# Entry
Amino acid sequence: MLDRRGWSRAVRLLSWIGVFAAMLCTSRAASAYPWMIRHQYQGCVPCHADPSGAGLLTEYGRAMGENIMRSRYGVPAPDEPSKVGRFLFGVPTPDWLLLGGSVRNGVQISKSGSNPFDAPRVLQMEADLKAQLTFSRFRAYGSLGYMHEGAQLTQLTQRAGDNLVSREHWLGVDLDEDRTMLLRAGRIPIPFGIRNDEHDLLVRSTGTTRTNINESQQHGVALNYNGSVVRAELMALLGNYQLNEAFRERGYAGYLEVLVAQSMAVGASSMVTYAKNDLVSQAPSTIRQVHGAFARLCPTEPLVLMIEADALISTSGQSTVATAGTRGGFVGLVQADVEPTQGLHLIATGEMRSNSGLAGASTDYSFAGGAAALWFFAPHADLRFDFVAASSAGSAVSIYMLPQLHLFL
# Structure
């Protein structure tokens, strides 16, 4: 019989085997790519099952991924959708069933200040299966995955490592025949700001807006609207029920985005929550507010610019002098995505965060700059390489490099 360490090694080996197996039998990436506005897709419907983006792709979304997202190497896209875009490289599924999955692994190389680089760290980042059932206007959506370590906010099991996770699971109903309005309840990505798939951005991080799609979903009820000019979502947050009761946040979150030109969309976001104890600061009776604006624009077809700015306000109770009072802050993002040739993206990102602390305290500033190359090099697969440098007041500049391989069912 294998001991716990043996099982852990076996599962990690299977995860890597899954990567190479998936290369032979997978479909387009099911991620959030806000730069799709360059192709006149300002919204996320009809390509995604989630109307605000990310997660499972519809059959139409799979076809678009094959035709306009990956490198074609001089071979034109087919006039009709090919089997490449189907689940498992051609396995047919009924109209009422969407299936998918993803495996993402990477190697992180990092250093801080003048210290030498740390030993490379192999990361098993995602290994999830996803499905949606649709009957008339009713939908049921869910994901189930495995994580060797981390992703505590998504865990279904509570072991020290090797846990089952579920990032999303919800029931929904389309309120109209055109499916422009969806009402759903369950564990749902928080509707706020630009839905990036880069979960380590400052504007998406646990220390700021807490809205990344890797683990920051919340349980609640959401109403989504997707029109030709306006798209919006409002969610009543009931807390993360995969988290201890004391740290669950209740409140609301929502966004409104308007297409002001064929290649330009602007929007605003707002979120207010209350928790008995704050997940990050541990401060009691915390009210957290995040309000901001964002924009996506394509001034010329190879280039897409994405901008987001959010104000951060946190007010905690009077239980202790150290944690009581109001803190303020700001976080901002500017990102440029250039696609010099189909399938290859060169990405530059700049971010700034300020934390003012309690009344009378000095303001700390953090900065991050990154360069990335993302290449959809084959059907159902992409490679990405990130280089990021970050600094904050009183600490040395840290850098990390992260090559990763991302493949999908």
User: Anything to note?
Assistant: The domain at 11-408 is CATH 2.40.160.10 (Porin). The chain has one domain: 11-408. Helices lie at 4-24, 59-69.
